[in-house]
Amino acid sequence: RGRPAAMEAREPLRDARGALRAVLARVREGEPGEGREPFELPRFWDALGQTFQVTSQEATKLSLAFSRPPLPSAEDCRKLSEDVQNAILAVATVYYWLPKGQGTTLRKMVRDATTEVVEGMIQLTDTILNSPVESLSQEQLISTGGVWEACEQVSNLPRDNQAAVSSALAACLGVVKDAVEEMEHALVEGQDPYGDIMEDEELGFRGNRDTYWSEADRQLLSSCVGLMKASKACLKKVLGAVKAYGKADSPEQIAQLDDLADIANEISPSVDELALSMYPPVNPLAVRLNAAKLASVLKKVLEIAKTSHVCPPSEEGWVQFLNDAVDHNMNKIKNFTQDQL
User: Fold this and answer.
1) What are phi and psi of 80, to 5 degrees?
2) One Pfam family for this entry, by name (predicted)?
3) Integer CA distances (angstroms), 106 to 47, 113, 254, 302, in order
4) Which of 45, 71, 145, 301 lies at 20 to 30 Å from 338 by C-alpha?
5) Same domain, yes or no, for 186 and 243?
6) Per-residue pLDDT tens for 47-72?
7) First to last CA, the chain
8) Residues 8 and 145 placed together within one structural domain of the fold
9) Does residue 152 sit in the same domain as residue 165?
């Protein structure tokens, strides 16, 4: 007889979970409210920090209530569920204050953080609804910790679009660095790219030419690595310029930073595609196509940087230098693949 009563007591929590799912869908898809009043960034951060903190506390209260007998009464459960719902609604409401004009890169990072908090709370209510009554499960502990962690993220968020774009560029740079290192490592003279996985135990050798690079392959690929290194240098230089000269004071500056982040985001997928096409058996035309695509992304990044406020005349030297480096490697790649056309 105890079971149905316990299930009934948790009914409000079920409703709350439904409401949280609706909030999550709105945060994922929703458009920002364009300022009803003058928007102040410091006020926004204070308010967001507070709502995240309250959510963290509500998660703790909810989790504790369901961690030991006696279980909360239907009335208590309704109160707890309401508080959780209100905390999450407050988080979403403050997120909506942030207008697009403050920067789409910044907004996406805040949206991701907000989404994680709402998802965390849904996960916690799920866990409580699905776990046997009157015992604190390992899952429940983990879910509660998940909400705490998601709520603490607010303190690490970039505070304006200049910081947001710097952080986005730094993330791209990390990915590209890894890709360059991996490729350089694979191309070490005489090394067999598949040596670790393709060794034939019985015979001690492998008969398949398709798993080797020819001398011609190696020449072509070294220019591809040159192009990959130019990608790394591009990101490094643009990141440096954004940190040194980037501002988020005017709509124009904010938009220029977003344009840079958007195009820079295309670098690492393009580097990855080029790297994938470099493994044997090499199809020189596929390599050339992927290289050309990466080269055009890099030229666009340099063009956007050059015409933006992050690039005063003192910075134009490296823009020109990197433009030349991209052309130089691309021309070599074209020469190596000319007879394939």
Assistant:
1) -60, -45
2) GCIP_N
3) 16, 11, 10, 22
4) 301
5) yes
6) 999 999 999 999 999 999 998 888 89
7) 80
8) yes
9) no
